[in-house]
Amino acid sequence: MKKKEFIQEYLNRGFSLIPLKNNSKVPAIRWKKYQYKKASLKEIEKWFITFNDPNIALITGKELIVIDLDDIEKLSELMKILPEINKTTRVTTKRGYHFYFSNNGKHKIRSINNLFNLGIELKANGKYVLGPPSNIDDFTYNFKIPLSEIQPIPKKIIEYLEETLPGTETGIKESGQAPGGVEYRRRKALSLPRYSGLDKYCIEQILGRDLKAGERGNKGERNNSLYILYGLLCQNKNRSDHSKKIVIIKNNSLSRPLTDEEMKKLFRRRYNFKCFTIREILPYIECDKCKFKFKGGVLRVGNIIVKNIMEISKLNTCEKAILLLLGTVFEGEKPSISKIALKARMNYQTVQKAIDSLKKKGVIDKSLYK
């Protein structure tokens, strides 16, 4: 087939195309708008006049979903989980295969890098793939199984995406009434709503985890995580009803979700959680990537230094040093005096004296740093 025939077949199937630079995967134009609109045949013909033998890329998402398999050794594992890949359109790439599936706008599918926990990429929602007969370093992308054999997106992929957030389905009950009095419009593809507090890494970790239920009366990480998630969303300036919506969607994504009655109890009370409290209750939480923690010289409104900015000039050198440590290195934590002394390179007694003085002056809480 000539390149023009490939393009016509792609257009006939409703695919959105963009040009890439010759012998490259780099777009030759500003291409983002073609995630939402399709280029006409006239536009595409102009690209081939303007650019020197460009490669072709196909936009994934609405019409086309692609499994990008670079590691051939994982093919047998993928076939066991997804036997449909033996029948659907297959493209031979430089490192492996692209498996094409049709979507026809039926499902809102997101891209992920770890499909079925195999480290295989699923390309959707606006990502692009090289399409035949594109050429990279004398290797030509070609159809091993033709486009005419393309299969619908397998149910197993949709089910896998439903189990992780933000998913393609919500699991909201048919009545449309969610626990806690939050109303939902019924629709197939309701993604996780946007929320304030995106820089709180603990929120992201709770949302991304399949929370485990406790055994025999032990609440376990599921109940504690959902309760903390609700509290964190509320204290990060989200309306109560919006916070409930996000927590309910997360609950419904779990393999063992809480019941409606349990969810109602969870929403009856709120609590302002501190970093050290969250770490004590949820051992899986890691803080190394959190933007809320002091990084790059940015002090937040609730920071101990900011709250006591007017008192700093009244402190002695040792007290200032300890306050700075508490507001930077130990921001949001509850360190022991020994730990502070080690970091400050001071002896224990000196740090203890400075802490006691800061407590008397009302700079730090009397119940902390013992």
What topology emerges from the helices and strands here?
Layout: H1 3-12, E1 16-20, H2 41-50, E2 55-59, E3 64-69, H3 75-81, E4 90-92, E5 97-102, E6 112-115, E7 120-123, E8 128-131, E9 135-136, E10 139-140, E11 142-145, E12 151-152, H4 155-162, H5 201-207, H6 220-235, H7 240-253, H8 260-266, H9 275-281, H10 304-307, H11 317-327, H12 337-344, H13 348-360
Parallel strand pairs: 5-12
Antiparallel strand pairs: 1-2, 2-8, 3-5, 3-7, 4-5, 4-11, 6-7, 9-10
General description of the model:
- The chain is α+β, with helices and mostly antiparallel strands and 370 residues long.
- It folds into 3 domains: 3-162, Bifunctional DNA primase/polymerase, N-terminal (Signal recognition particle alu RNA binding heterodimer, srp9/1, 2-Layer Sandwich); 179-281; 304-360.
- Helix content is 33%, strand content 13%.
- The chain contains 13 helices and 12 strands.
- The strands form 3 sheets. Strands 3, 4, 5, 6, 7, 11 and 12 form a 7-stranded mixed sheet that branches. Strands 1-2-8 form a 3-stranded antiparallel sheet, covered by helices on one side.
- The longest helix is centred in the middle third of the chain and has 16 residues, at 220-235.
- The N and C termini lie far apart (77 Å).
